[in-house]
Amino acid sequence: MDPLYTNRLIIRGFRETDADDLFAYLHRPGASCFLSMKLDDLQAARAEAIKRVNAEDIFAIEHRQSGRLIGEVFGHFELPDSFSIAWQINTEFCRQGLAFEAARAVIDHLFEVRGVRRIYAYVESDNLPSQRLCSRLGMRQEGVFREFISFETDEAGIPIYVDSLQFAILKKEWIGLPH
Questions:
Q1: What is the pLDDT of residues 46-103, one digit of tens each?
Q2: 26 vs 35: CA distance, rounded Å
Q3: Where is the N-acetyltransferase domain (predicted)?
Q4: What secondary structure does DSSP assign to 87-154, as a single string?
Q5: Does the pTM of the predicted model rise above 0.85?
Q6: CA 31 from centroid of its chain's CA atoms
Q7: 10 Å Cβ neighbour count for 170?
Q8: Is residue 101 within 8 Å of 7, Cβ to Cβ?
Q9: What domains sit in the chain, N to C, each tagged with a CATH number?
């Protein structure tokens, strides 16, 4: 993929040299839904960075000013023309509008270059920043899935289920939004 440029970011493919920065945000994921991606050490981060080098649906977010990898937008394509999207940002870079800037660039790319018709996201009911981001991106809430998934267990090992909200936007809706 050719890099995408925004005012403050470069959206690009992963590089093997991203391991340190990848570890910085995945050793303690900011949202419970990313606990399965947790990296325990730098060796695991190196292996993960190498694995991501050829991944088509994982977009690395590079902070232009610092040159650091600060997060990712990722998901998967579903036939015939939908894309499930998610994002995560190093907590050091949160609350600066960078996730919005990155997600907007990737959504533009998915609609205009990849031919996607519909993009959707699952967001846990307690993840208010991602819910706000979905709304800011023009996505509408389509539904609530009660006790949809479990990312953690309680002290007795019993799964703790959380509600998930589904947000989505169609290409024809995206085109009508100011960018």
A1: 999 999 998 999 999 999 999 999 999 999 999 999 999 999 999 899 899 999 999 9
A2: 8
A3: 9-161
A4: EEE-GGGTTSSHHHHHHHHHHHHHHHTS---EEEEEEETT-HHHHHHHHHTT-EEEEEEEEEEEEEE-
A5: yes
A6: 11
A7: 18
A8: yes
A9: 4-175 (3.40.630.30)
